[in-house]
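Query structure, 242 tokens:
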């Protein structure tokens, strides 16, 4: 009799402890603040590869759950035998991230929880590069080597200003102003100055971190002087997206 009471007490204690642990787990999953790691696309595959490498290094050293926002459509003015004009910059980058040991099995255009929306706020089917079904809890992205990574694709943007305009639209659709994530922008070192000016013009109340790739493109530094002249006009046009 006494032994039975003892076993019953142990069972009750174990059940209570299990409940507490599960509660802590779900609270952590749903309340942990994410880093939104933005990777800006490029029509130049070499530059895109350098930015992807910089993003991978950031993920490997980060302790925070990460939402990877890959931005880049198809630039109509760019056409070369070495590129795939029908494949967006974001999709090309996603193919690489899908092979990494820390990336999710589900890559999608949409929110990081609930019903998927694209960057324009419209429902979209989930993009499954490997055919795995989506999940709607905190395991939407798989956990590999302690890394929590979710991937969102923006396949609409055709320049830097649009990259950030679609980012803002996605943020407005998925976060409240009181619960904004931290932002980390991955781009090339030569692109930093222009990208920062444009970001301030699109999201003036946000101060991001910058994760810069070291570029092997020597001419790109001088080309930036030309692109900088277009920053005010690019910002004005991109605001129409928002």
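Result returned for the query:
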């Amino acid at each position: 009799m006494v032994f039975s009471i003892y076993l019953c007490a142990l069972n009750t204690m174990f059940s209570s402890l299990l409940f507490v642990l599960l509660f802590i787990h779900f609270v952590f999953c749903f309340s942990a603040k994410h880093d939104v790691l933005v990777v800006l696309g490029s029509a130049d595959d070499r530059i895109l590869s350098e930015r992807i490498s910089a993003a991978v290094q950031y993920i490997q050293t980060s302790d925070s759950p990460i939402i990877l926002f890959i931005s880049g459509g198809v630039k109509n003015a760019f056409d070369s035998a070495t590129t795939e004009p029908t494949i967006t910059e974001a999709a090309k980058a996603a193919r690489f991230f899908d092979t990494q040991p820390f990336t999710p099995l589900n890559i999608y255009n949409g929110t990081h929880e609930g019903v998927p929306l694209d960057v324009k706020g419209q429902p979209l089917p989930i993009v499954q590069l490997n055919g795995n079904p989506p999940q709607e809890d905190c395991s939407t992205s798989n956990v590999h080597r302690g890394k929590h990574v979710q991937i969102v694709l923006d396949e609409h943007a055709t320049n830097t200003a649009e990259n950030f305009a679609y980012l803002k639209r996605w943020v407005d659709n998925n976060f409240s102003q009181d619960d904004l994530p931290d932002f980390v922008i991955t781009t090339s070192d030569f692109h930093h100055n222009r990208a920062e000016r444009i970001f301030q013009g699109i999201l003036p109340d946000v101060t991001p971190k910058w994760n810069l790739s070291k570029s092997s493109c020597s001419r790109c530094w001088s080309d930036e002087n030309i692109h900088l002249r277009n920053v005010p006009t690019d910002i004005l046009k991109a605001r129409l997206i928002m």
